[in-house]
Amino acid sequence: MFDLIIRNGTVYDGTGAQGIAADVGVKDGKIAAVGVLKPDTNAQDIDAAGLIVAPGFVDMHTHSDFTLIADGRAESQVHQGVTTEVIGQCGISCAPVCSHKDIRAVSPWYTDKASHPNWLGFGEYLDALDASGLGVNVMAFVGHGTIHRAVLGDELRAGDPDEVAQMARLVDQAMEEGAGGFSSGLEYFPGALAAPEHLVPMCEVAADRGRLYATHVRNRDTHYDLGFAEAIATARQSGARLQISHIQPKFGAPDYAMNHTLEMIELARRHDVDIAFDVIPHDWNHTLMAAILPKWAQAGGVDEVMKRLANPEMRKKIKANPQPMWLIVKAERWDDIVLLNATVNKDIVGADFAEIGRMRNCHPYDAVLDILLEEGDNLMSCMWSSKSFRDSDLDLCLQQPECAVISDTVAIANEGILKDHIGSLSGYGWAARFLQYYVRDRRILSLAEGIAKITSIPAQRLGLKGRGKLQPGYAADICVFDQANIASNATAKNPRRYASGIAHVLVNGQVSMLNGQRTDVNAGQVVRDFAA
Predict the structure, then answer these.
(1) Is the pLDDT of residue 341 over 90?
(2) What is the separation of C-alpha 453 from the centre of its chain, rounded to a whole number of angstroms?
(3) Which is it for the CA torsion 370, 375, 377, 381, positive or negative?
(4) Which of 32, 178, 320, 344 is 20 to 30 Å from 314 at the Cα level?
């Protein structure tokens, strides 16, 4: 009757309901039954005694757009129970492009070590993903930054009405070809150029198709209220469902910023604006190092940026920027900022910039700009992380029923062609750390509530059909873990350690991890069918 039965576990269905002692039967890639199941000599039995059986984790905000093309196994994600991830966030996506040479320019974490098919349109890109042997299911958003570049290249302007209309048509075409939503990154180039009047026509496309608009807002520190108000206004005008990405305010925001933001959201909801949000389960904030540059210094592509970095007068102007993306840089809290990823300078990854400045006998800000210059063509892969979030803000967000938990990272592996890549300090352990630190150790949420934050809540918000719950008829995406021992093992010095405590993982009914060991199975698929 069944292909596989997970027996003797405590089953949490992902809805927030308490766990029950039950078995889970799998047939033809679907959950066929949940309950006390009779012996089945034809089924593979997996013993989950003493373990938690949950839906596979849904990571609704990642940047694995190219890493999954390079190495589709998604080892860092599967090893912590992730079975579905959503790419194309913060305005960054691998398609559409006008020429094959543009793929490198728009692809996050691009590596020339990867051999891959070329693409132009969004559907062609999804076909390339499908062919890469995916360890996880993938839903893809189309990014405003990539759409902007397809129409305007690296021009330092947001577009006139005709050009914006052309961008909206490209968004619509991408959604016709399988894009599950639209995203913007308003602290990055070229998103920083766009105002609501530029974004609303594209968000209207998302609204018409019942897809999400996810935004990395313009500001989450001094002017946090302006950034969040802009996102709300864009959703209100366009009618789009709004997902505020990694909502927690940054260093420099007033103590009351999180409470105030939630009040703004609640008021907008009373007037029928559909808003939800997500958080990264960590007090460290990571981003591209190049994002510290003013938008004028980011224009024109990598070669132009390098020329400015090498020019002493331009450097003075860059360092004098009154409103950098990170105010923690302006405050010179260099010991709270670490180098997270570099290619040329990988020997100092994990060091803080106060230490790097001493090593180089220069001011830490000059060390930042020197490293960017030294990275050359790899400049846009250079990452750093800062201690910019408050646990109290995270605690407050997690207590809101609409809040999901995300990684904001990339799917990679600590061997193979991506072994030197890193996406964030918690990239190898975000889900494990959430269940370890916020659920088990600090009890901010019950286990049932915590599981819902990374299963049914994101799946329902995204419109993922038949995923995110352990119910008959749903896809057999399943994670079996040890609640007492689940843990993230990543540190700033050693960020590439896999999580522990994950016993078994199933993706579309096939076993990706068994008894804590990764199998050779990669049964993920690109998701192109969404509930409105």
Answers:
(1) no
(2) 15
(3) negative
(4) 344
